[in-house]
Fold:
Amino acid sequence: MVSWRLIVVLYFLTIPFVNAQQIGSIRDEFPEFNLTDLNGRSIQKSDMEGKVVVIDFWATWCAPCIKSFPAMIRAEKNFEENKNVLFIFVNTLEFSGRDEVFIKEFLEKKGIDIDVYLDRPLSKGISLSDKLSITTLPQKMIVDFSGNIRYRDKGFSGSDEELISELTTKINSLLAGKSDL
Amino acid sequence: MKFFKLLWIVFFLIALFAKQYGSDPLFFELPIQIHESLEQNQVGELMEDGFIEPLSVELISDSKGPIYYQSTIRTTVCDDEVCEIMNIKLFWDLVGEYVGYDTVAQHPLTKFDHEPFTKNDYERLHELLKNEGSILKFKQKSELIDKEKVKASDVVDGTTGATSLEIKEEVVEGALYSSYTLWHLAHNGQIKNMLTANSRRVLDEHLIQYLLDSDRSGYTLFAFQNFQEKDYTKYKRYWLRSLKDDIPLTRKYIIKNIPTEMWRAHIIQEEVCLLFNFYDVNTKTYLLNKIEKTEDISSKSLEYISFYLTEMNRNQISQFLDILSKSEKLTVLTRDNISRAANNKEFNFSYLINERHWVN
Structure:
């Protein structure tokens, strides 16, 4: 007699937690995606296979994002000879109407020379930043050889050296096959 | 017994769940039951710095007419080190005054250390947003943090830098920039203009009546501001009630805008002057100024005011005595009141009357 009551009770008790799980969960595995850069070249998850990938999520309205670019460019340069390391700059959470033309002009005006991929909601309204629950910028991720997110950092302290050192250490650790970052 | 305890827990969780995911907003000041059958109509869009996408405002109406405005907003909040996307639903009344907010599903408000808002934080935010005269109104974003006074212990929005006490007391702790951004959205002049323009556009007899029946001072003032001359006759009891009970701004507006033709009628002058004792000091002065400029003021009106001679300030007494001196016929009661005030030993300004030899 008590058992069905308990089942009902447990059912209701689980409702909020089921929702919380759906709302808050972030998967460690980097999701499938397909982005196009300002020159029309596309990139997808399969292009990341076997590489350590640094992904920098940014937007034109995000001043700390722009401030961190010189450090990111220097960090990328440190690994330009290494074909196993890939840097991807993803323009996301952008103001409505800021298309590739706007982004191109924006970068030219700022004198920033990076290859930018555009993350825009697809027909179903899901963008890569949605899949990764990104609401804070700048946000940098490092994905390992197996496509797992191993490092996630939000914001930019303002110190170029700090950022370069942090990224370089993490990338080198992953290249060395260390499991603990 | 255990079963009933469990049942109670279930009901509590269901109530919590309903609050979180149901249609009732977290905070909503209007005495209106929000339900799904309410009609939504887009009023317009607005694009400003910081908006991810154009802000779209909707007018919500029930079967009788418009009742409030709402907008689901996606905006950016930045400090020196990090930027956040903030999702929120704001509510305004029909004259563009902030009346509440709600979180957007799957986007609870968070602080800059990514900690979620507590129940107290949500309540604090509503109190802040309700305060139209907040100090945030006069502050530029760059003034929120004093970079010269860096204190390690001072954590507001996770930034290093001293936040002045006056600002600290006005914001949700740990959410300085969010508080600032939301206050400026809730009291955004362009949004308010859009809403009031729309209310003016949809204003009809029913809506005027709805506004006049409301106890919201903004509603009554808005109705009077949109009166046509004939409305002063039609809604006489409403504007007389407002003269008695409403805020000084509304009283002043009414006295200033009573149609000239209507004001010439002695009965109207008398009804306005009869309420003299209910008026605040500024309204009293405003009325005396109007009377002074009126060619034909009824002696009964002056009589009504004369009962409150001892309630007036120095300038008002002088002005009222000037008005009386120009009046050809004063009632017996007016003369009695003047005489009584002149002889009142506890009345500080009795000398002003005696100087003019008003005593019978």
About this structure: Residues 20-190 of chain B form one domain.
